[in-house]
Amino acid sequence: MKNTEIFVLAVLLASSSVAVLGSVSGSFLEHPCGTVPIRKFKIHGGHDAPIASAPWMAMVMGEKGFHCGATLITNRFVLTAAHCIANGELKVRLGALDQEAEAQEFAVDAMFVHSDYDFNQHDLALLRLAKQVHYSENISPICLLLDPLFENIDEHIIKFRTYGWGQTESSPSSRMLQKTSLFNLRRSECAKQYSHQQINRNHICAERANANTCNGDSGGPLTAIVTYDHVQTVFQFGVTSFGHEDCSKATVFTNVMAHLDWIVNTVRRAGNM
């Protein structure tokens, strides 16, 4: 990835910050989730991520080693990009942010690519783990917000955070997980950078000078800390999909909020198979 500043997140909805009354349990795919210490914290221009700062991060491993990033969303499923699905056996590593550190490894017994996936549209996939994950300080799921009242919340977030083990300024890949902050970019402005792509509600674009995702960051999350029911919680809003060849322009993420029906239905159906 390509960062140089400490992350401060602000979420604005109309004239107030996000706070929701009502049942919390029905608002998440998995609960508890997204509960990590909020600390000062490369991705291109990023910083090493502290060990307990991203316990939902997953490494998708192929036959040649590290393949893509992903996120743990339940005790059986990780979310990644559809273009990360490769021929051959895939495994998922959890509980380590250092590629060379000891981690828990899980076989993948089923893969589900979005039925409408086409190049850069609906670039999502779910990997089902062969056995359940036991949560710990270093392994726990990220939150997906199911509350329909906030289906467009991503449009009001000013700054996101993204993670990955991809290319940095000095290396084709990063041994340590990197994290950086990116600013929300209007889709109309993003479309000017990608005139040959269709940028729509299925996408979220984000950028910042001297910071960006790059080769190898695919499948990783776009996140934000939202005050929900009076608790600061980390939610996933996007999955890293594509960017410019030299990593110099905005990154385009698949919009998780626009694909919640598919994610939830697939998890609930396939989880019972």
In short:
Belongs to the peptidase S1 family. CLIP subfamily. The protein has helices spanning 187-193, 260-270, and strands spanning 47-48, 57-62, 65-72, 77-80, 91-94, 104-113, 125-129, 159-164, 178-185, 203-207, 221-228, 231-242, 251-255.
- Which CATH class of the largest domain is shown? Mainly Beta
Q: Strands of the largest sheet, in order across it?
A: 8-9-10-13-12-11
Number of domains: 2
- What would the principal axes of the Cα set say about the shape? globular
Rg, rounded, reads 17 Å
> Which CATH-level-2 architecture of the largest domain?
Beta Barrel
**Run of helices and strands:** EEEEEEEEEHEEEEH
CATH fold topology of the largest domain: Thrombin, subunit H
Number of helices: 2
Q: Strand pairing plus helix content: what structural class?
A: mainly beta
Biggest pleated-sheet summary? 6 strands, antiparallel, barrel
What is the CATH superfamily classification of the largest domain? Trypsin-like serine proteases
Mean pLDDT: 83
* Count of strand segments: 13
Oligomer: single chain
Report strand %: 25-35%
Walk me through the topology.
Elements: E1 47-48, E2 57-62, E3 65-72, E4 77-80, E5 91-94, E6 104-113, E7 125-129, E8 159-164, E9 178-185, H1 187-193, E10 203-207, E11 221-228, E12 231-242, E13 251-255, H2 260-270
Antiparallel strand pairs: 1-9, 2-3, 2-5, 3-4, 4-7, 5-6, 6-7, 8-9, 8-11, 9-10, 10-13, 11-12, 12-13
Describe the structure.
One of its GO terms (cellular component) is extracellular region. It is found in: Secreted. Belongs to the peptidase S1 family. CLIP subfamily. The chain has 273 residues and is mostly beta strands. The protein has two domains: 57-141 and 261-272, Beta Barrel (Thrombin, subunit H); 148-257, Trypsin-like serine proteases (Thrombin, subunit H, Beta Barrel), CATH 2.40.10.10. 7% of the residues lie in helices and 30% in strands. The chain has helices at 187-193, 260-270; strands at 47-48, 57-62, 65-72, 77-80, 91-94, 104-113, 125-129, 159-164, 178-185, 203-207, 221-228, 231-242, 251-255. Strands 8-9-10-13-12-11 form a six-stranded antiparallel barrel. A hairpin with a 2-residue loop joins strand 2 (57-62) and strand 3 (65-72). Residues 2-24 and 38-47 have low confidence and may be disordered.
